[in-house]
């Protein structure tokens, strides 16, 4: 029997510093998130970050936490429920980090008789810190605990025409009644090193003005290319004028070079340039979360106002948008029609 496992990033159990510390410990000790040798990662995470960051992160989580729990979890659950209403096979939800583990998600499906799983990482673009870490862990868990099931995964869908249409429609609908001079596409950042490491050609990614727009097999795993493509395709679909939109990368951590331009500096620059009304969209996130609700909608707005900006509009993520639910459900239904694969 076939079933679906949706997987998102995860959140702490509560916005209290002890839960945030536990969650960040698991997240940042992942070798695909902080990709340095174990001794250096341990020193950095356990020796420095976990002694300083949880208090500040917990304060940020408290600002965005809902009565029902973490926005990211609640919104992912709403998405799961709406997809479940549309498809005939069991749909479970898991998180890469935290209590809603991939093992529990697979167990839930197996308990319902599932032996063929369609794994859907809830990220439009591939990154080793997101999609790859989910796929690797799911395979480890499968081998160790569920050797008789098979897992197939949904490939990154950043340039799928239907996805681009759904994203563009949601942006257009939200901004319909709003006036804005500039639309910023802000994606979660990653260290530049992550991009070079996943360059399968070992020579394409220069992280410059041309590599990501020059066709290459490297693009299948190039997060930067995939983000720039989403911006390009949405801008084309929405007929945005050259100069009225741009791309930036947010949430950098540590001192290594991350993908640029940085979102906070871009917002600052737009304000300084005299832009009074800006809108911002965050297509690396399927569900609204700390990074969109706090870092963008609160901190980003504050920076813009400090620089003289007036109207700052944050477009919600796709969350449980009807067209997005329909699209994921159609991919699931198509997959369910494919031939059975043996483990
Ligand atoms: C080295 C650190 C990090 C990398 C690389 C990274 C990549 C990455 N993350 C997301 C999506 C999310 N990240 C979120 C929070 C978050 N991310 C990092 C660090 C890295 N992320 C930290 C330390 C945190 C925690 C919050 C904080 O202390 O600032 C979230 C929000 C989770 C929530 O509970 O709401 C998401 C979602 C992507 C897509 C990505 C690479 C492409
Ligand atoms: Fe992150
Ligand atoms: Fe590139």
TrEMBL record:
Catalysis: reaction(s): Fe-coproporphyrin III + 2 H(+) = coproporphyrin III + Fe(2+); heme b + 2 H(+) = protoporphyrin IX + Fe(2+)
UniProt-listed Enzyme Commission number(s): 4.98.1.1
Enzyme class name: lyase
Subcellular location: Cytoplasm
Annotated Fe(2+) binding sites: 188, 291
Source organism of this protein record: Psychroserpens ponticola
Recorded family membership: Belongs to the ferrochelatase family.
InterPro entries named among the record's database cross-references: Ferrochelatase (IPR001015), Ferrochelatase_C (IPR033644), Ferrochelatase_N (IPR033659)
Record has Cytoplasm as a keyword: yes
Chief location category: cytoplasm
NCBIfam families hit by this protein: hemH
UniProt keyword terms in alphabetical order: Cytoplasm, Heme biosynthesis, Iron, Lyase, Metal-binding, Porphyrin biosynthesis
Pathway given in the UniProt record: Porphyrin-containing compound metabolism; protoheme biosynthesis; protoheme from protoporphyrin-IX: step 1/1
Function: Catalyzes the ferrous insertion into protoporphyrin IX.
Matching CDD domains: Ferrochelatase_C (cd00419), Ferrochelatase_N (cd03411)
Gene3D superfamilies in the cross-refs: 3.40.50.1400
Domain of life: Bacteria
Record-linked Pfam families: Ferrochelatase (PF00762)
Protein's recorded name: Ferrochelatase
């Amino acid at each position: 029997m076939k079933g679906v496992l949706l997987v998102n990033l995860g959140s702490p159990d509560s916005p209290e510093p002890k839960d945030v510390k536990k969650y960040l410990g698991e997240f940042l000790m992942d070798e695909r998130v902080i990709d340095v040798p174990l001794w250096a990662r341990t020193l950095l995470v356990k020796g420095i970050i976990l002694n300083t960051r949880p208090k500040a992160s917990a304060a940020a989580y408290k600002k965005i936490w809902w009565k029902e729990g973490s926005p990211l979890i609640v919104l992912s659950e709403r998405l799961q429920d709406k997809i479940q209403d549309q498809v005939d096979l069991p749909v479970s939800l898991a998180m890469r980090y935290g209590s809603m583990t991939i093992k529990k998600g697979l167990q839930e499906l197996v308990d319902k008789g599932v032996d063929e799983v369609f794994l859907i990482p809830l990220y439009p673009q591939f990154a080793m810190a997101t999609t790859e870490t989910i796929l690797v862990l799911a395979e480890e868990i499968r081998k160790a605990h569920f050797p008789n099931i098979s897992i197939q995964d949904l490939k990154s869908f950043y340039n799928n025409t239907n996805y681009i249409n759904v994203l563009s429609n949601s942006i257009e609908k939200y901004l319909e009644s709003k006036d804005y001079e500039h639309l910023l596409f802000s994606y979660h950042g990653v260290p530049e090193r992550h991009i070079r490491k996943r360059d399968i050609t070992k020579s394409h990614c220069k992280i410059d003005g041309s590599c990501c727009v020059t066709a290459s097999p490297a693009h299948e795993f190039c997060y930067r290319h995939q983000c720039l493509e989403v911006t390009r395709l949405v801008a084309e679909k929405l007929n945005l004028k050259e100069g009225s939109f741009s791309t930036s990368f947010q949430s950098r951590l540590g001192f290594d070079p991350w993908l640029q331009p940085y979102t906070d500096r871009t917002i600052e620059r737009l304000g300084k340039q005299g832009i009074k009304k800006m809108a911002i969209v965050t297509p690396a996130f399927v569900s609204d979360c700390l990074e969109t609700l706090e870092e963008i909608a609160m901190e980003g707005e504050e920076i813009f106002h400090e620089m003289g900006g007036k109207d700052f509009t944050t477009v919600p993520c796709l969350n449980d948008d009807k067209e997005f639910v329909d699209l994921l459900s159609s991919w699931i239904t198509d997959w369910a029609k494919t031939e059975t694969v043996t483990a």
